[in-house]
User: What shape does this take?
Amino acid sequence: MVNARFAIPASEVAELETNLEQKTKLRPTKSCGVPKVILSELEHDGCQPGGTTRDSCSWVESTADPSALHKHTMTDAAWEALKQSIVYFRGQPIGTVAAIDKSQAELNYDQVFMRDFVPSALAFLMKGEPLVVKNFLEKTARLQSREKMVDHFKLGEGVMPASFKVHHSHHTEKTETLLADFGEIAIGRVAPVDSGLWWIFLLRAYTNMTMDNSLAETPHCQKAMRLILKLWLSEGSDTSPALLCADGCSMIDRRMGIYGYPIEIQALFFMALRCALSLLKDSNDDFVGQITKRIKALSYHLHSYYWLDFQRLNDIYRYKTEEYSQTALNKFNVIPDSIPDWIFDFMPSRGGYFIGNVSPARMDFRWFCLGNFIAILSSLATGEQAEAILDLVEERWEELIGEMPLKICYPAMENQEWQIVTGCDPKNTRWSYHNGGSWPVLLWLLVAVSVKLGRPHIGRHAVELMERRLAKDDFPEYYDGRAGRYVGKQARKFQTWSVAGYLVAKMLLNDPTNLRAVCLKDDGHIREPVLKRSNSCP
Assistant: This one.
């Protein structure tokens, strides 16, 4: 029986009830993994009161209504899974665990990760429930102040934790403390570069969605922002305005050849710098001047050396090498023979993107989803470049979207390249996990950029693809295979950011004003003019 609280006209409800009684068989699938919970008083697409169902993971085989009940059921199940993932500290919500899958060894999936919480936070903000986000920002700002030691080396004061968990005393469960991981116990022992950048992004999202500046203006939040940016704005011997990073310092947290200056970190850095300008109280001090100068330099650098389209690829293909002068075109001495064969077929005549990495004698031509979409949302990409990135997604839909959105990077490494670059990582085999795997969490980014650019049909089509399987597969962490057809071989079920990414995508489509949480307007006066290299690369 369809619950009357679904936002469906009464005439359609009556027709549905008749057809369901006469023609429909309910076929339960796997358990939703939310035991002993009656799915009631849930929220659905537009953040309005939803309804209950007999089975939150049941699928209706009906000729009367092929999609309405399915979509409401999936959204309700997603909200319930997200609620079940909330972590409480001394009675207050402070975040969401990475996954609530109890079928596998936990490792650290029972912790609250900085980057993983971002889509959860956006979902709660768009739903009008900001308390958990506020508590998360306050607690992590205080965790930042703790002394951070790895072996005998002290990390910078501005480093934010990769994750934290609530620890209960052995003597009494009433004594709770927060234990943070700054990289000293993480796989690979790498401190997260992205945690602080996401923290600043989330503080701005909270401020914009609540219209409340009081949290951002508190001394501990102002101090936290300054410590994060002081860490990354410090002068050194590097000739690049981009951030120099180790492998495994971001969402791709295993060895995948992204060491150097990965586009994901550079785009997030640009986003965080711009967010900080709107959040710092004293706009006249030298620190703000440093930020503005870095924004200009970083924008110039990424536009000049990371942007790739058909014409730019042809220029690189014809590069001369061993140039020694101020007027050199091949400034990083990239050897044309190092250009991989796949890029010539992959690059369409219409479209372009920011490549993965640039450093001496090296250009990583791989497509990285997160970096390019953050470039659009932060307005690092010009309007023309933003359109070109989305054009590329449309032109290469089968490669980048396939049957389950969305490729984290493209293409996958295999054979000897996989052996050398990943160190024979059994988790990052070809078309799996970070090595060309498909990650549902990235859906919200695709929807956000498609809504921003006035092309929501692209995001809507990706959502419809995901709705065919995501809940039925128990919201897995990632999918494997060239087209993303198979649930990942080590994927956790009920991965919280897979759940939250879907909900955020739905809310962005249903109410485009939610875009204010994640999108920055173009601020053209901060961008230095860039030498024009092709029609789509100003």
Summary: The chain has a mean pLDDT of 85. The two ends are 58 Å apart (CA to CA). The CA atoms of residues 273 and 291 lie 6 Å apart.
